[in-house]
Amino acid sequence: MTDATTAGTAAVKTGRPSLDLHVIGPIVALLALILIGALMNPNFLSYGNVTNVLARSAFIGIIAVGMTFVITAGGLDLSVGSMAAFIAGLMIIVMNALVPTLGTGWPTILAGMAAALAIGFAAGLFNGLLITQARIEAFIVTLGSMGIFRSLVTWLADGGTLSLNFSVREVYRPVYYDGIFGIAWPIIVFLAIAALGEIVMRHTAFGRHCAAIGSNEQVARYSAVHVDRARLAGYVLLGVLVGVATIMYVPRLGSASSSTGVLWELEAIAAVIIGGTVLKGGFGRVWGTVIGVLILNLIENILNLTDLVSPYLNGAIQGVIIILAVVLQRQKKATR
Amino acid sequence: MQPAPQTTARTATSAAHAPILALAGVSRSFGPVQVLFDVDFDLYPGEVHALIGENGAGKSTMMKILSGYLEPTTGEVMLDGAPVSFTSSEDAEDRGVVLIHQEFNLADQLSVEQNIFLGRELKRGLFLDHKAMRATTNELLARLETKTPAWATVSKISVPEKQMVEIAKALSREARVLIMDEPTAVLTRNEAEILFRQIERLKAQGTAILYTSHKLDEVARIADRVTVLRDGRHVLTAPASELSEDAMAEAMVGRELSNLFPDKADANAAETVLVLKDFSVPGIVENANFELRRGEILGFAGLVGSGRTELMEGLIGIRPATGEIRVNGKARQIRSVDDARKAGIAYLTEDRKERGLLLNQGMRPNLTLLALQKFSRILIDRDAEEKALDRSIREFDIRAPSREIKVANLSGGNQQKLLLAKTMLAEPEIVIIDEPTRGIDIGTKQQIYQFVRRLADEGRSVIIISSEMAEVIGLATRVAVMRTGRIAGTLKGGDINEDAIVRLAMGLEKKAEGND
Ligand SMILES: Nc1ncnc2c1ncn2[C@@H]1O[C@H](COP(=O)(O)OP(=O)(O)OP(=O)(O)O)[C@@H](O)[C@H]1O
Ligand SMILES: [Mg+2]
């Protein structure tokens, strides 16, 4: 290296800095978990168990994809768990109400699905408008709407459980339990949304704008980004995805109550952070979020399958992983 | 730590024999990229030493090494004649070496006073001694002749005010060595004069001062010695009295520099592209009227705070504004930067770190952010982006150690070139450039001036806001001078000179040639 400019070209040739912990960390953690699981229980890699884990990951996963956009743009949404319960409750009420007119078949279910998406859209719009137009902190707005949605579903269920009409449930069940080519529907939907999300995040103006807003809102504004519009779109997208997750969730139990979706918001946020998205915003990756969701669900699954550690410690182990993930992010920045 | 005779004998004469701070054979690399090569340097108590060099020459890097923010890859830092390795910048500060960064290092949400005492708050027993801190702060601010109140929140004060706060903070540390990285880049002349008086005062007390600036006239005036860096190498150190400004410039760029300013364009006959009528930005700008012709370079002069930036921010829809905007004869409503972009107007901010660039991202996303719609149908065309980056790197001579570098790690001047490239990518017909050469070396300045001239030749119209009088005079065919939110007058052709501008800017003359 003779001078700064030739040194520069040399650097260009060697290309990107070698894979750092920040990128491969989550992948390594996931592989390690799979290895541990496979060694500890022969059933771990069985078709049944894999399908089970993936299908259960789907609800949080679909929500977490939306959450990745919101967090990347420097926001947060604490209301998604309650929102899911609220949407599930309303969706069931709508379908039950439609049975006399539309019957117990697919027309009713499709109408229910449309209602779920519409309610998700409206709920996201509600959060988003309060945040972008009334300029209230996202944390406060969604903390409030979290309480509102939760209490509304409790009120709708009159403190008990809302149950879907039994014949409708029979028709709807396969949406959770069946699939094609042996892959369950929730998994297909989850993976499709994740793939789409990844493309939107990395290859569209919307994804770019989210990252720009999250890194510096002023710069984004001066660069002709419609900051409010993009942030609003993020919350609406998240609301719609909560609707999608609910559509996949309702056929599983066929009911909704005040305990539906409890703590989903925290799991979704945790998955996003474990996946390497920066909590302060400015950088997000959807594939990381998918891995984050899988890591959280695998831990639970492994604890259930083996008797090494009590499954009651699940939360503690997940907590350690979340903190570790953030520590790893920090270390990358601190290099002097 | 070690016996330090200089601390007791702090006079210019007795200490002049031994350097207080020095570098011996210092090199520094970032990953595979070496930016400093075997640099020797010494700094004596009671001297003002200027470090000059092109953008990216390694000045900031060298200053960070001197003040404990970075470690040398090889070589030694010597304090009072003995090798030291500062464990941190705090360690260096404790030993009397203080750096004022090129970028501000202030806690935005804290007050001026809290910032000045950050990390070394005065206490009485367990509690903060607010009274003493307030008194010291007021005293420091008074010395710097700023009107900024001690209680003001830093996020609310202007850029030059922030610079003054940084300086006040450094003064409060009672530094033996004060290192300043481009302190005057964001200051007006008056403010710079105040700073120079402080520098003289500190010098008389025996403080060693190292500073860098791209304003060579300033260097010639206040520096005792000058060191030139080029491409990370030490080129020369000489008494300032032995170097002319031209000699400095040549040593920096390694070649002879011809005329700084290109010939002026003549746009008298061309049609009008932009008209502002009774344009007001509530509370700041009142009833501004001006027009802009095709191929014209219109200068905006005035004191800092006269509303030039705010007027333009109103025009591009960042600030709420009233009045009429006509672009190419058509009335336009501009409510956002996007509207402005669609109307063919682009604004290049004076504050590249906070409003111009995403520091934590790479060059490519920064370059295309403003004109992103050009690169995306549904998906963003990454190849096209890469090509645009190639072109911009070539056209604007952006010198980056690597393509993937985070913009925060580009040298200040190269950040500015990237910002220019970003703005031009939107292919605006009307370009408003706010402080085009802030923190830019003389060679690059020349490039940028030629570039602005080329824009005018291509039939675009340019508005230049600058606090550097020479820039406005050298470039513009017409100069609007603003004073306290109004356009005080417009100067043309041969009438454009420093005296006339100052008179209008200060309100010494009622010679308003009408706001044509
Ligand atoms: N953390 C970093 N990682 C990689 N490269 C860096 C880093 N910091 C600085 N550089 C590179 O080192 C070189 C010297 O930068 P430096 O900031 O010292 O220049 P400078 O002389 O202060 O320029 P300017 O006048 O523009 O401020 C530049 O090419 C810059 O991109
Ligand atoms: Mg610098």
Automatic annotation (TrEMBL), chain A:
The keyword Cell membrane applies. The chain crosses the membrane at residues 21-41, 53-76, 83-103, 109-131, 138-156, 176-196, 232-250, 262-279, 286-303, 309-328. Its main location: membrane. It is a multi-pass membrane protein. Pfam families: BPD_transp_2. CDD domains: TM_PBP1_transp_AraH_like. One of its GO terms (cellular component) is plasma membrane. Keywords: Cell membrane, Membrane, Transmembrane, Transmembrane helix. One of its GO terms (molecular function) is transmembrane transporter activity. The keyword Transmembrane helix applies. It is found in: Cell membrane. PANTHER family: ABC TRANSPORTER PERMEASE PROTEIN YPHD-RELATED-RELATED, RIBOSE IMPORT PERMEASE PROTEIN RBSC. This is ABC transporter permease. It comes from Stappia sediminis.
Automatic annotation (TrEMBL), chain B:
InterPro entries: AAA+_ATPase, ABC_carbohydrate_import_ATPase, ABC_transporter-like_ATP-bd, ABC_transporter-like_CS, P-loop_NTPase. SUPFAM superfamilies: P-loop containing nucleoside triphosphate hydrolases. It is a peripheral membrane protein. GO terms for molecular function: ATP binding; ATP hydrolysis activity. Keywords: ATP-binding, Cell membrane, Membrane, Nucleotide-binding, Repeat, Sugar transport, Translocase, Transport. It is found in: Cell membrane. Its main location: membrane. One of its GO terms (cellular component) is plasma membrane. Pfam families: ABC_tran. Residues 21-256, 270-509 form the ABC transporter domain. Belongs to the ABC transporter superfamily. This is ATP-binding cassette domain-containing protein. It comes from Stappia sediminis.
